[in-house]
TrEMBL record:
The Oxidoreductase molybdopterin-binding domain, residue ranges: 73-219
Pfam families: Oxidored_molyb
Protein's recorded name: Oxidoreductase
Stretches assigned to coiled coil: none
Gene source species: Streptomyces diastatochromogenes
Gene3D superfamilies xref list: Oxidoreductase, molybdopterin-binding domain (3.90.420.10)
């Protein structure tokens, strides 16, 4: 098993419901009480570094999702201060506000989500702007061959080839589960790469930089596949998601 310290051993069938049953709702209440001060993500971030057993799965109302962050704490951003920059090998670099992104054509997809450690969430709606739309608006130069994604957690990065990035099932997502994406799921804006393992779907997205070659992302530097097709990478045989 490759290192992904906030995640569980591969294929271990422990979902949120099982945890609630095991620990009891009282335990969740005790664990959640001190969270209100610092914010849930600070709490989860702080335990995630020490506890690889899956306690980070206790995301209230997560709907089967688990909370991941490689950063101990992440600033909150909203309509007033969120910005997404598109730059690099483009003719027209641009910075979008949340309102700008909301004003663009929205695409809604409903597919399974698959994490490389084994958990899968069926039929999850994601909605947002096609990445291809932003790339077309920016005017990718001939030398542009790949995308580097950066995040306002200050740490996480991701990558796609230009061809992958232009797929119609790759979104700059504003909504997940038919709600605006909350902070814990990477809101207000996260990447959504439907056909790939969920580590490609960078949370707290703040930068889209067109580069001349693929620069491996955070987990990819640690051994995960750059071409992370569900069922055709990372030595796994999951059912494809898109
Ligand atoms: N910025 C950022 N994005 C990230 C991660 C992260 O740690 N930081 N983890 C990745 C991994 S491994 C997974 S499985 C999903 C988890 O998304 P969730 O927290 O909404 O369940 O986010 C992906 N995107
Ligand atoms: Mo993951």
């Amino acid at each position: 098993m490759k290192p992904e310290p906030t995640e569980e051993p591969e294929g271990r069938p422990i979902g949120r419901r099982v945890f609630l049953g095991t620990l009891g709702l009282g335990a969740l209440g005790v664990a959640a009480a001190p969270v209100l001060q610092r914010g849930l993500e600070g709490f989860l971030g702080s335990i995630s570094g020490k506890d690889p057993t899956g306690l980070t799965g206790l995301l209230p109302n997560g709907g089967g999702f688990r909370y991941y962050s490689v950063a101990a704490s992440v600033p909150h951003k909203g309509p007033a201060d969120y910005r997404l920059t598109v730059d690099g090998l483009v003719d027209h670099p641009h910075t979008y506000t949340l309102a700008d992104l909301r004003a663009l054509p929205q695409t809604r997809l409903v597919k399974d989500v698959q994490c490389v450690t084994g958990w899968r969430v069926p039929g999850t709606p994601f909605e947002g702007v096609r990445l291809s739309h932003l790339l077309d608006a920016a005017g990718v130069q001939a030398a542009g061959k790949a995308i580097r994604f950066t995040c306002f957690d200050g740490t996480y990065t991701e990558s796609l080839t230009l061809d992958q990035a232009r797929r119609p099932d790759v979104l700059v997502a504003l909504r997940m589960q038919d709600k605006d994406i909350g902070h814990d799921h990477g809101g207000p804006v996260r990447l959504y790469v439907a056909p790939m393992y969920f580590y490609k779907s960078a949370k707290w997205l703040s930068g889209i930089t067109v580069t001349d070659q693929v620069r491996p992302g955070y987990w990819e530097e640690l051994g995960y596949d750059v071409d992370a097709w569900v069922g055709r990478s990372n030595g796994r045989t999951d059912e494809p998601t898109s």
